[in-house]
Design goal:
By secondary structure, the protein is an alpha/beta fold.
């Protein structure tokens, strides 16, 4: 058998051979290969700093192996990055917290891109999370041009960055002029309002394209490439404007899209399987370095220039690719420093902290964030005109499955580290507090309830969740309420009370939140330009959690269950058992929220339910194997030794059967402990 390194190397060679065959140009034609990354989010190593273990599917080190192979097979290549580069992992946070890089020093991630030989890049929205000066220092260290066409000096239309460049290259020994323009979502002025207001302004992507694309053509560009840190949503001409950009500007040859963390060709544009829109080739290589985007242009000489005769795009996955040793060496120091940083113990948690059920029930993740935010806001408002007003707190589960089955916060009871806190709070937000009234509070919760489809009571086969982002599913602590997902949008929040009394529309509250939300991120009511900001201390939200745990030593973030789903969306004889396990966070469904009550119980699902309900670790070595009643009884015997468990026989249990069984065991255990 091949060892892993040889197998990975062979995989890369097979990919490159396949590319060489697929890209064979017609006689007399030339080829230009364009490689692209986007939304790397500070993933250099194939490493998960949250769980402190390898993550074989991510990282620039994986990307560089593919880049080298493609360059070896195709001498005429270009390599671009499409933004959201310097934020997103504990490595990025470590640098900021340590005050690194210092002004004038090269950012370690930019250093890697310099060594990898990037030809140009643009900024993403997250480049500005640490402030404009930090972003500018990172850009200044690049040995390749950064282009952004729709960010301006305040009150002017003067570009703050270089809007575009003309790259003079050769192809088959003949000169070619390549225009490269960059775009960032104009919503940076909302999401990072605090950092950017008065320093820069951002305009619409399409407006900047109308201004600068003709200039690029007039400058003699043979081809035009747009580095567009924006998704490709046909219904969106602002935040996700790549589709509209292709429709309005067919003179653009290639659009490298980003921001939405989707794949093109693929799920990011399913109605265009080849990624072509109006003759423009789109490519979007996912996120975190999971893919390298590759576009091949076939060109022919025409009137002293070049004409594109064919365009093809594909995404090369990195999961089976060997990491490039050079990149690992270039980033070794900052990687090892980050590992040491995130593994620094700060305290102990008495209970597991998991976000796996965070879209279904109150949970330790949002409970901890809300406890911290409320405590610090109450303390900081002492002696101000707002002291005495009730302080509420809004928090969302940041790791809620959007990135797949591993995209959860999972911290076992016991020691808790800085890396664990980074898993709880993955964004580099700061604390803010707003003054809101009761009507705005209800509207805020109604907005968050977009996370759910309107359900007709059924047997758990329909998806419960919409594609509304989990990081926008705010859960507000300090009031009590329920969400009725059988009701239409705007009429889902029922029983909204404060200290047992109905919340009145003109009742005033202080709402602790973060700068992203307060500045308008997620388009919640009473935010952005309408926000009444009463507190903006500029304190990093994650650091407040670290401080909170370190000061106490031991934490116990048991959810207070101040909110819940109304138990009316299941029509099943065993539904009440399922609702009980939902409340306990022990029944979680799939990534779309399907509960599948009548589905056969598998070992994987059973092991997860038993662990979350009882804390017992079962062997799920054959995860898809069915679970019979007799096996379930044996599994539970260790939890209640000497007590008969009401399950026997060889019939396969359904998931609803498992819920009934576990609720019975929990009731028995609680009765025994009460004696």
């Amino acid at each position: 058998m091949l060892n892993n390194n040889i197998r990975s190397r062979c995989t890369v060679l097979v990919l490159v051979l396949a590319l060489a065959v697929a890209w064979a140009a017609p006689a007399g034609a030339a080829e230009l290969v364009i490689m692209a990354t986007t939304d790397i989010h500070a993933n250099i190593y194939p490493w998960d700093y949250y769980s402190n273990q390898p993550n074989p599917a991510v990282g620039l080190a994986k990307i560089y192996t593919l880049v080298k192979e493609i360059r070896a097979a195709h001498p005429d290549t270009l390599l671009f990055d499409n933004g959201d580069l310097i934020q997103g992992t504990p490595l990025a946070s470590y640098l900021v917290n340590m005050g690194l890089p210092k002004p004038g020093e090269v950012h370690p991630i930019i250093h890697v891109l310099n060594r990898m030989g990037y030809d140009a890049a643009t900024t993403g929205n997250h480049e500005f999370n640490f402030g404009l000066d930090y972003a500018d220092n990172a850009v200044a260290g690049a040995e390749f041009p950064y282009v952004v066409a729709n960010v301006y000096h305040p009150g002017t239309q003067d570009p703050y960055y270089t809007p575009y460049v003309i790259l003079d290259r050769t192809i088959d020994g003949q000169p070619i002029r390549i225009g490269v323009i960059g775009f960032v979502p104009p919503q940076i002025m909302v999401w990072d309002r605090t950092h950017l207001t008065g320093k820069v302004e951002a305009g619409q992507i399409l407006d900047a394209a109308r201004r600068f694309i003709p200039e690029i053509k007039a400058a003699g560009a043979d081809i035009i490439i747009a580095l567009a840190h924006t998704g490709a949503d046909p219904s969106d001409r602002s935040e996700n404007a790549a589709y509209a950009l292709a429709l309005e500007f067919p003179e653009i040859d290639v659009i490298i899209a980003g921001h939405s963390h989707l794949e093109i060709p693929g799920a990011g544009l399913p109605q265009h399987p080849d990624g072509k829109v109006n003759g423009v080739q789109l490519v979007q290589p996912g996120f975190w370095g999971q893919y390298l985007g590759v576009v091949t242009l076939t060109l022919e000489r025409e009137n002293g220039g070049w004409r594109v005769t064919d365009k093809r795009a594909e995404l090369l996955p990195t999961a089976e690719v060997e990491a490039a040793a050079e990149v690992l060496e270039w980033a070794k120091d900052v990687h090892e420093a980050t590992v040491a940083y995130v593994n620094e113990p700060i305290g102990v948690t008495l209970i597991p902290i998991s976000s796996r059920a965070s879209l279904l029930t109150d949970n330790p993740v949002t409970q901890l964030i809300n406890d911290v935010q409320r405590l610090y806001v109450e303390d900081l408002l002492k002696g101000t005109e707002y002291e005495g007003l009730p302080v509420l707190s809004a928090a969302a589960p940041f790791k809620s499955g959007r990135g797949g089955e591993l995209d959860w916060t999972e911290i076992a009871a016991g020691g808790i580290t800085i890396g664990d806190v980074a898993s709880i709070y993955i964004y580099d937000n700061t604390l803010k507090a707003l003054l809101v009234n009761g009507a705005e509070l209800k509207a805020w919760l109604e907005h968050a309830a977009q996370k759910f489809n309107q359900m007709t009571p059924g047997r758990g086969e329909e998806p419960l969740y919409t594609d509304f982002r989990g990081y926008n599913f705010d859960q507000i602590d300090g009031v009590e309420y329920r969400i009725d997902v059988t009701r239409p949008l705007g009429d889902r929040i029922v029983g909204l009370t404060f200290q047992g009394e109905p919340v009145q529309p003109d009742q005033w509250f202080i709402l602790a939140t973060n700068n992203y939300r307060a500045d308008g991120g997620g388009a919640f009511p009473a935010t952005g330009a309408s926000a009444r900001v009463v507190l903006d201390p500029g304190i990093a939200s994650r650091e407040l959690i670290v401080q909170y745990i370190a000061e106490r030593g031991v934490i116990n973030p048991v959810p207070d269950h101040n909110w819940s789903l109304v138990p009316n969306f299941l029509d099943h004889p065993q539904a009440h058992f399922v609702y009980e396990l939902l409340k306990r966070g022990a029944y979680v469904g799939d990534l779309d929220g399907r509960l599948l009550l009548d589905a056969p119980l598998t070992q994987k699902v059973w092991a997860d339910m038993v662990y979350r309900a009882l804390g017992i670790q079962l062997d799920d070595g054959d995860p898809d194997a069915p679970v019979a009643a007799a096996q379930a009884a044996r599994d539970l015997a260790a939890y209640l030794p000497g007590t008969a468990v009401a399950a026997a026989g060889d019939h396969v249990l359904t998931q609803a059967d498992a819920a009934e069984l576990l609720v019975g065991v929990l009731a028995t255990a609680e009765a025994l402990s009460a004696r």
